[in-house]
């Protein structure tokens, strides 16, 4: 498990040692099925395929247990083949399963929100054939953002951000990926979280674009606090809105109930303004009536410049 602030030096040392230290979960040896069905794309130029996915934490309580959902999610991810996945709600053992299902081409960076392997992760999975991590860090959405597990704004639980600066091997361009999950029950906490995220991003290299994936727990609508602070303000662009082509719109949270056409998007992918987005999709994959999560993952194909 990677820890906070062991940035580029740790990655370089890992490369020298011939290890893959960017993984936030252990990578099991693929089965013969995994070896044959894992994605086989290479670092060819083209848009970066980004997914934001609230996984719904692993549960053994029926219905919709992780054992029932896992094979559906495995098939979904292998069909979609995103090159960057910002996930929310994943638990350590669940993320190990997903790492194994994605196969050896993928790696991940993350930390439990309560420290180490404890609590939910904001794990970022990435296809190593396309992306190379250069530095990363985590912070908590609180008055003490550098204190692991800190929670000072109310709400149900600690909330955190994981970010990574990547190099795109296909284009040699660099960018930041930022991933989070905002508070569900406290609007003030969401508002303060948006402010802190903007403050931290302002400290990034201004020459590099930013991609922000999240479950915002708030609809993507002008007039609502988080959307106005992040998007209406001009700080970010909503990739669903700027996309040249879009799929059908559904509410991205369904709770394992029938999908809601033209419903609220509470899961968004935001970009630095000006980045071209050739396509956006709300992924409605299910199998034999089983959805892989209580959220629909959202996808964008983003051109870095």
Automatic annotation (TrEMBL):
Name-wise, this protein is Endonuclease/exonuclease/phosphatase family protein
Where in this chain does the record put each Endonuclease/exonuclease/phosphatase domain? Answer: 51-295
Instruction: Mark the transmembrane ranges.
Output: none
List the Pfam families.
Exo_endo_phos
Domain of life the protein comes from? Bacteria
Residue numbers spanned by region Disordered:
24-44
Against InterPro entries, the record matches this protein to:
CCR4/nocturin_mRNA_transcr, Endo/exonu/phosph_ase_sf, Endo/exonuclease/phosphatase
Q: Where is the signal peptide?
A: 1-28
SUPFAM superfamilies cross-referenced by the UniProt entry: DNase I-like
Q: Which GO terms describe its molecular function?
A: 3'-5'-RNA exonuclease activity; endonuclease activity
Q: Does the keyword section mention Signal?
A: yes
Q: Which UniProt keywords apply?
A: Endonuclease, Exonuclease, Hydrolase, Nuclease, Signal
């Amino acid at each position: 498990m990677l820890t906070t602030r062991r940035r580029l030096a740790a990655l370089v040392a890992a490369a020298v040692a011939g290890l893959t230290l960017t993984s936030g979960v252990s990578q099991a040896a693929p089965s013969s099925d995994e070896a044959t069905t894992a994605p086989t794309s290479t670092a060819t130029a083209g848009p970066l395929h980004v997914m934001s996915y609230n996984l719904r934490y692993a549960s053994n309580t029926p219905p919709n247990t992780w054992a029932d959902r896992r094979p559906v999610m495995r098939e979904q991810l292998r069909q979609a083949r995103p090159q960057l996945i910002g996930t929310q709600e994943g638990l350590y053992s669940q993320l190990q399963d997903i790492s194994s299902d994605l196969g050896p081409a993928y790696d991940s960076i993350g930390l439990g929100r309560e420290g180490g392997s404890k609590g939910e992760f904001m794990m970022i999975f990435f296809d190593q054939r396309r992306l190379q991590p250069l530095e990363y860090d985590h912070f908590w959405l609180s008055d003490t953002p550098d204190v692991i597990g800190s929670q000072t704004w109310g709400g149900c639980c600690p909330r955190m951000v994981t970010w990574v600066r990547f190099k795109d091997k296909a284009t040699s361009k660099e960018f930041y990926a930022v991933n989070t999950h905002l508070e569900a029950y406290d609007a003030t906490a969401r508002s303060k979280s948006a402010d802190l995220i903007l403050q931290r991003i302002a400290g990034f290299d201004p020459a590099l674009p930013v991609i922000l994936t999240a479950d915002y727990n708030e609809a993507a609508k002008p007039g609502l606090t988080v959307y106005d602070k992040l998007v209406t303000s001009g700080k970010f662009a909503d990739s669903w809105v700027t996309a040249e082509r879009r799929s059908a719109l559904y509410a991205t949270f369904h709770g394992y109930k029938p999908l809601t056409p033209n419903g609220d998007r509470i899961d968004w992918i935001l970009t630095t303004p000006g980045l071209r987005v050739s396509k956006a999709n709300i992924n409605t994959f299910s199998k034999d009536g089983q959805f892989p999560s209580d959220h629909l993952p959202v996808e964008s194909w983003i051109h870095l410049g």
